[in-house]
């Protein structure tokens, strides 16, 4: 019975189509073929799943989505210190954009050292969307990419995560090449928008774009920090312990996750764990909080060491010298510790010190200070 109804419905559809004027029927067929080709042109999404326990970033996500949806913005940069959740925010933004029917493609630039590496990575992905006869043979690889992207039927977003890994790789002219490459794509297609994550602002690392908006990711609000602790330690944790953990970790999401993971694997209650932890706080703070079984880019030790290695010799000396001081140190004391003659020299060294390393130093200082003060 069901099959006969379906067959009858199709017969009726074909009969009605025959009654349409030839020009209208031709137009319908053309549109349907175009839609079919458009769908075939889109490569599958490579957006990672949402990061577990993502909380407290609704405002930042809405701001970024608003910028991407704006016709006046072509590049949005997400920046902030290590461990603050830039990749998590970028991923969440990607999912929100997909819900709005944007095509979103996520690429980590970790391990890339040159413009050629970036082009090869993008071409190998987007080439799947084109048949061999759609792209003329023997084109330069960058021109092949430009032509593929120019054929994208709808507005699309490319998320370039950890872009500073490429920008600070040390390759000759890598920053200039990166900027020009993105400008070339944006000039060839009006449908592309980029979301870029970096530890420092693009302006700080001397990368400049037109039609660019920047969104900084800072520490979580206190309420969201405590909510994250409750999610990670759901077994009736005391409000005082929840507040203490959030404060110890400086409201930094990665630090909270690392510490809560350590507590959850321990057989003691959070309050007892924190009491025992105070006795060990004089040892290496990074090793106490770090999780060796985590991926390298989620380890506190990796984030600190990779940030420190990017510094100049003078900046490294400043970090080591300043690390013995409290958070509210006097500039005269800093000058004496750093071995410079005037406060002006100390201020100059302090101002030029990259924000990401200073923030990590404050995080470690908070871990130690708040543990000792919590008795």
From TrEMBL:
InterPro entries: NACHT_NTPase, P-loop_NTPase. It comes from the Eukaryota. Pfam families: NACHT. Residues 74-235 form the NACHT domain. Gene3D superfamilies: P-loop containing nucleotide triphosphate hydrolases. Coiled coil: none annotated. PANTHER family: HTH-TYPE TRANSCRIPTIONAL REGULATOR RV0890C-RELATED, REGULATOR-RELATED. This is Putative WD repeat-containing protein alr2800.
């Amino acid at each position: 019975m069901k099959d006969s109804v379906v067959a009858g419905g199709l017969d009726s559809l074909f009969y009605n189509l025959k009654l349409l004027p030839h020009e209208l029927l031709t137009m319908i067929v053309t549109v349907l073929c175009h839609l079919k080709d458009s769908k075939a042109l889109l490569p599958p999404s490579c957006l990672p799943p949402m990061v577990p326990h993502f909380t407290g970033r609704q405002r930042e996500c809405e701001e970024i989505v608003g910028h991407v949806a704006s016709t006046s913005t072509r590049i949005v940069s997400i920046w902030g210190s290590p461990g603050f959740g830039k990749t998590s925010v970028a991923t969440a933004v990607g999912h929100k954009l997909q819900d709005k029917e944007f095509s979103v493609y996520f690429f980590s630039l970790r391990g890339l050292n040159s413009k050629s590496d970036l082009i090869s990575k993008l071409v190998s992905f987007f080439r799947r969307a084109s048949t061999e006869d759609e792209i003329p043979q023997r084109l330069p690889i960058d021109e092949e990419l430009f032509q593929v992207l120019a054929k994208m039927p709808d507005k699309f977003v490319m998320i370039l995560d950890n872009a500073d890994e490429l920008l600070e790789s040390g390759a000759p002219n890598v920053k200039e090449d990166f900027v020009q490459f993105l400008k070339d794509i944006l000039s060839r297609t009006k449908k592309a928008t980029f979301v870029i994550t970096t530890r420092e602002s693009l302006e700080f690392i001397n990368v400049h774009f037109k039609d660019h908006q920047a969104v900084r990711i800072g520490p979580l609000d206190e309420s969201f920090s405590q909510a994250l602790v409750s999610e990670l330690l759901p077994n009736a944790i005391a409000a005082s312990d929840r507040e203490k953990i959030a404060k110890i970790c400086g409201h930094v999401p990665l630090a909270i996750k690392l510490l809560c993971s350590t507590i959850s694997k321990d057989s003691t209650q959070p309050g007892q764990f924190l009491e025992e932890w105070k006795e060990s706080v004089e040892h290496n703070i990074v090793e106490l909080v770090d999780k060796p079984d985590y991926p390298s880019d989620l380890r506190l030790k990796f984030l600190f060491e990779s940030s420190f290695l990017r510094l100049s010799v003078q900046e490294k000396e400043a970090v080591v010298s300043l690390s013995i001081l409290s958070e509210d140190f006097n500039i005269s004391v800093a000058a004496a510790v750093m071995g410079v003659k005037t406060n002006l020299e100390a201020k100059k060294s302090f101002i030029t010190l990259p924000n990401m390393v200073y923030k990590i130093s404050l995080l470690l200082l908070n871990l130690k200070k708040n543990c000792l003060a919590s008795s």
